[in-house]
Automatic annotation (TrEMBL):
It comes from the Bacteria. Signal peptide: none annotated. This is tRNA(Met) cytidine acetyltransferase. GO terms for biological process: rRNA acetylation involved in maturation of SSU-rRNA; tRNA processing. InterPro entries: Acyl_CoA_acyltransferase (IPR016181), GNAT_dom (IPR000182), Helicase_ATP-bd (IPR014001), P-loop_NTPase (IPR027417), TcmA/NAT10_helicase (IPR007807), TmcA/NAT10/Kre33 (IPR032672), TmcA/NAT10_N (IPR013562). Keywords: Acyltransferase, ATP-binding, Nucleotide-binding, Transferase, tRNA processing. GO terms for molecular function: 18S rRNA cytidine N-acetyltransferase activity; ATP binding; tRNA binding. It holds the Pfam family TmcA_N. Residues 176-320 form the Helicase ATP-binding domain. Gene3D superfamilies: 3.40.50.11040, 3.40.630.30, P-loop containing nucleotide triphosphate hydrolases (3.40.50.300).
Amino acid sequence: MRGLILACVSPSKIESIRHTLLSNEQSLIDTRELPQQFSKTQFQKLLGQETQGIIFDARDSFDSNLFTGLNGSLVGGGIMIIDLPPITMHFLKSLLPAQLHSSTEMNLEKNSAALIQSLPIEALLKRFLKFATTRKSAAIIVDDKTYFFPPLSQQTPSVDLAIKEQQAIVGQMCRVAMGHAKRPLVLTAPRGRGKSSALGLAATRLIAEPNKTILITAPSLSNLNSFYQHLKMPANTHVSHTTKNNVVCSNGSSVVFMPVDQIIQQPPQANLLIVDEAAAIPVQQLDLLARQYNRIIFSTTSEGYEGNGKGFEVRFKEKLLKIMPQTRFAALNLPIRWSSEDQLEKIIYSTFLLAYPVKACRFNASYSQTHIKELTKKLLNEDDYTLAQVFSLLVNAHYQTRPNDLERLLSDPRLAVYGLCSSDNGADQKTANNDSNSSHIIGVCLVRTEGELSDESIDKLYQGKRESKGELLPQSIVLNYGVTSLARRKIARVMRIAIIPEMQNQGFGSLFLEKLETCLSADQFELIGASFAVDDKVLGFWIKNHYALFRFGNAKESSSGSFTSEVLKPLQTGRETKLVTDFESLQSKFVDSFLFKVSRQLKSLETKVVYLTLKTIALSLGKNKAISESFDLSEIKRFINKQSHLSNVDFQIARWYLSWLIENHQLTFKKDRDGLIIELIFKGLDWHDIRLSQSLTGKKQIISTIRDELKIMLTKLNE
């Protein structure tokens, strides 16, 4: 078992506790010694360690991401000391059982109960202290008084079952390399289960065979510390040489590390590719790796500091099964670093709602049975069942949801939480009993209040002197387009929206947005928008609900591997014409920007996304009569008839294609028509990239194909 000490004492007393419980020979991580700002690489390196003691500084703030991550570094028999701020003293005492109080203390706590509950203590720190004292699994030291001290086991309990589980997984890993091809393994595990060490043990077994190359990658080399610690030379060989974590054996076998992007650009030959912490790698990159290698192990932490979002589960596993239907899935469940009955892990899982599943929906809801409800901070802080429903839904729907996101959910005054609720008599009784209103949450939306910036803030933004924290949409509008009037408006930014899996793709997301817009409009919001990692499905959802694109990021985000997209929609159009005028000005500037950037900064934007964007641009231009209804098609016809070169008519094709999209907006994307025109005319890709994308032989066939497609389009136009 691991020990937990909650200490609300002076700094000198913390040192005394440390020297009493931890010897100088025992390893220690002391977060008081960390710099205030440290890089992601430093963060990952810190969390890759194993330690026998942790002093966690919570005096100034309680960093939930760091705290949950360090939990995985503390070995069995280790001790975690939390250095608490003085303001928690009376709150801590109020949580203790009555028998541990003196009569004087009991009267004081009773008379001050309301005041104690209103103390400005961070929401997640409060939750953690409540769960720690409820489980009676912590020593509580206030000043010089120790209120409760459970016995600490200084040895990790037997891990025989966990080791057997790990050995079975190692066997599966080796079969990926030695057995049938195109049967990759996807391994998931919470922290402390020996996932990375299992990879090291499997690699050790494989390089015992001669001339085997094991290629390994991860988001960062520091993710692989445990892997290299467990990578040992087989008895029948020795290390020939090592270079930057590349190990070459005397039998010709080797273990080679390469960053993900390098593997994708120049894939080396390998008998096995290992991808560790795969959930932290963009899905698009994982998809490319799966198409390049027939023998792969994808390994990832299922929850913890990496972010416990299920984007990896939801998005990538589905793609992988399409590429290789015989993919195998496995999990490590039993902890190796500590006991399966470890109380510290249970407290952390309860506090931060880690691994809380989305409950299956057992009722049939119709649109008429739904209503929107704001889930207040008070409700979420007091009703753990509702909070768990909300957070698990967000975790399930999004790529990365970190513990600090839960803190914002509970305490950020500018972040509102809305639920799409359904009352249905057919719901199972257990679910109904947990909700006093017999109302079931089928969707969750996080909305942040932005805008209403002062003239001074707007001027500083406009001049590039200062960025406004937490004002993503108004800041983007001012910095990129200079439409300062919109930054003065009251703006609602949809940060996340999610529907339970069983009711997705049935129109409930659009219904939720419609109800949300009505609600926000009544609260005097003038604009609603969103920012998201773009793909054609997500963008299609927002366009379908009449949101207008107004910006793409200039480069792909490292976390998602996608471009960021921003959309906006006016809510008060019937009341004020100036809002409409300013909004149309923003749209016009976006059109000019996009048509210029699509062949430059946005050249690698997904072709289907470009298609959807061009379609919205065309409809907007057509509505404003910016595209002439009649075209002189003679030059395009000359090109079709091989009487003119593409370079003579490319700009005319681009302009006519926008007009064609207006007339044919009901048609869906066609790769060899829309894809080819976009990649050749709008994006300006080189012949090699187009050949690969369109599966054509070269320039001659590309030109021939676009002539054929244009001829078909013109023929249908004349029908």
